[in-house]
Amino acid sequence: MEPKASPPAVVSQPVSSPISPSPEPNKSPRRSLPVIIAVIAILLAGGVLAYQLTQPKTEPKKLAVATPAPSPQVTPTRTQGLVLDTSKNYGNTYADGIVPVGDGKYTTTAPKTGYVYACTQYAQNLSTQSGGAQTRGPWFTDNNTAYNINKKIHVEGSVTWQADYRMQINASTRTITTNDLPSHPTGIFPILSSDPAYQYDRNPNSISGQDFTFALPLDPAYGSPGCMGGEVGVMTTGIVLFSAFDAGGRDAGAWEVQDECSGHPQSDGIYHYHTLSACIKDTSVHNVIGYALDGFPITGPEVALGNILTTADLDVCHGITSQITLDGKSVDMYHYVMTQDFPYSISCYRGHAIQPPGLSSQSPPSGAGGPPPPA
């Protein structure tokens, strides 16, 4: 038996495996990535640029900027008439204190500069009533055609009062209520026999509180001159303003003796002014110090230091158009001016005057002055 042959031996040989050659230094994947990104970016930028070059050119949109509207100019007819010349030096005509006397200077037919345009009933009262000072004072001069306001005496004393002055404004009306007691001291009335004023003016009347309401037009319409009565307005001191005359048609500023604030009472106890009160300190032509019965404001006469308006500088109603401060706003409008000389304040109405709350016997009839209100 033949022996079995042994199986051939298996010789293990290493299996050849492909070996990747080592990459070249400049072909590293990490280093080529930025290059790829840069190429892509260049291609994109080029594409965008090419697209923009092929589009029609358009103007860039401009942002809308809001332009403020110009300030409104006040040009209604209510502001027409004589206009203040702010470049003019009107001078200081009465710097020496000597002013003309206006006894009997009123007219009933037509307005006239330097005269009061009196309604018929009021004019009749001036020619028939008596009252006021008893004797001409030593302050009269130039054959009694003028008087020296610096030499005129005043009623003595200093009495304080509880003033109550209020103003309300709505869409069409300025309503002023006052007890007619002043915010400043007054002299002692009746005038004491021991007072030097007593030898010229023996005013027997006492001051008493009133209950006055003035419902004035807020936006008065400027019109043709209208006649007036004895009560012409109300001041911001709470005091009623009377015309330039005493009860007998004489110049009240020249004849009657008032206190140091230029006021005194009449027979019903109504304390009032005829002239510019010495206790009103801001007398600028731009400062409102009162309101006439037709609603137009009243100012002082001072344009600047030593530049002071007189009656000759104003229109026939004693007014002018200028810039004033009204209700906290600067406006151009017609207004009356109080001056040192006769007739001192309003001499006729440019607007429609209301019936005053006091002194009905001296008041203008309803409808006097300016255009009537709408029906």
The SS-based structural class is: alpha+beta
Please give the count of helices.
3
> What order do the SSEs take from the amino end to the carboxyl end, as H and E?
HEEEHEEEEEEEHEEEEEEEE
Question: For the CA atoms, what is the radius of gyration?
Answer: 45 Å
Sheet with the most strands, sense and barrel status = 8 strands, mixed
Number of domains: 1
Strand order of the largest sheet: 11-12-10-9-13-14-18-17
User: What average pLDDT do the residues reach?
Assistant: 83
Strand portion, in percent? Answer: 15-25%
The best one-word shape is globular
Distance between the termini: 159 Å
Poorly predicted runs are 1-30, 56-78, 360-368, 371-375
Count of beta strands: 18
Secondary structure: helix percent: 10-25%
3D structure, described in words:
By secondary structure, the chain is α+β, with helices and mostly antiparallel strands. The chain has one domain (85-370). The protein is 10% helix and 19% strand. The chain is built from three helices and 18 strands. The protein has helices at residues 29-54, 120-128, 252-255, and strands spanning 98-100, 106-107, 116-117, 140-141, 146-148, 165-169, 173-178, 212-217, 231-235, 240-242, 263-265, 271-273, 288-292, 297-299, 302-304, 307-308, 319-326, 329-337. The strands form five sheets. The chain has an eight-stranded mixed beta sheet, with no helix packed on it. A three-stranded antiparallel beta sheet has the order 1-5-4, with no helix packed on it. Strands 6-7-8 form a three-stranded antiparallel beta sheet, with no helix packed on it.
